[in-house]
């Protein structure tokens, strides 16, 4: 098993959402942690293009069993932005010729994000751990962009292997309530994402342990398999 401590000033973890408010989930989700780990290990997860122009996720990626803990909980912030986009349907179509192929709609939106990320991601997948360690130690040639947390503007401060003694609030699935959880912090976390058919996206309700503990509860382990 390997435990990684991840710190970052900002992050965001979004459900698929449209409209003038873009919320964030309260902490790192298994799907986001999976993407971060593959990024660090230099494993390409992007597949071909879907029917609607969406970048799909490859099949046959390394399965990873992971658990997520908060050393401290981040704060939620909001920012108001002018979002440039290609609108759905015929909205603002009269502006399209003037922008010469660029995005022709402007929409004021409020985006939520997190500040002060201090997390542990534990991985129990022996075949993948060696690849991850080699990448962290600079022993492999990595052809991938900078690791980020939910938005490519939100890059990490540090990611490093930590000791099993460092305690955390471990996020556990509510379907396996084998330990007392903080029910004031229940969140729906994404585990796997199907960008072509959202009904096949896998989610579950999670809540953190009431106390910071070193031993990872069995209910915190999640298998991310594509």
From TrEMBL:
Q: GO biological process: any one?
A: defense response to virus
Give a yes or no for keyword Transferase in this entry: no
**Keywords assigned by UniProt?**
Antiviral defense
Q: What top-level branch of life does the organism fall under?
A: Bacteria
InterPro entries associated with the record: CRISPR-assoc_prot_Cas5, CRISPR-assoc_prot_Cas5_N
Q: Which residues form a coiled coil?
A: none
Q: Which Pfam families does the annotation name?
A: Cas_Cas5d
Its recorded name reads CRISPR-associated protein DevS
Q: Which organism is it from?
A: Aminobacterium colombiense (strain DSM 12261 / ALA-1)
Q: What is the lineage of its organism?
A: Bacteria, Thermotogati, Synergistota, Synergistia, Synergistales
